[in-house]
Amino acid sequence: MGSSGNLFSAGSLLSRMSLKRKVYFAFHFDDIMRVNNVRQAWRIEHPDAPQMRSFYDSSLWESRQLESPESLKSLICDGVERTSAVCVLVGSNTWSRRWVRYEIARAVIDGRGLLAVHLNNLRHHITKLPDICGANPLGCIGVGKVQSTPWETPQYYLFEWNGQGWIRYQDYTLALKLPAYLADHAPGYLMPLSSGTAAYDYVTDIGHKNIGAWIDKASQAVGR
Predict the structure, then answer these.
(1) Which of 37, 128, 179, 214 makes the best surface tag, with the fewest CB within 10 Å?
(2) 213-224: buried (b, 16+ CB within 10 Å) or exposed (e) per residue?
(3) What's the mean pLDDT in 153-168?
(4) Residue 123: inside a domain, yes or no?
């Protein structure tokens, strides 16, 4: 009995280790050349990196520039729904982009893993130089605990930083479940998503070897 239980556990572990996850990349189109460096990472084998993991890319690309807001929301919703995690590829102005914020919001709403990877240490295709790292977009979206009256049950809502302060997120206004990676807090307080998620640098953290493992870790944090 004990022996078969051990074999079952080992088999389950091997099955999880062999899983090839689907990831959704959120990014600003101005960073497309750097983004493509990451998009192609799964094609490269690294025998010197046993932690290297490959992944399926389920992101939206050129089509999302052409859609109306409502149809674009539907496309993003469908894209994120088929993945284990959303990976935000961070350039200089990614934090301010409406649809990147919506892609992040969908990760929270749908219970997907979430992580950020800074791209600006990759050399620019024109200047041949790196750029100063942009702000982490996961620090600009947060979950607030709202209790309107003392006898009501507190609920969680998305908030966003508008450059001057935190406001209720307008592209999704319904209550949601607190993400597993965020600590609970008292009503009236807010936790930025960056407080419970990881941020990496694609160059200094050797992303071409390790990004698959980063995606794994973010997925496992939400049970995916």
Answers:
(1) 128
(2) ebbbebbebbeb
(3) 95
(4) yes
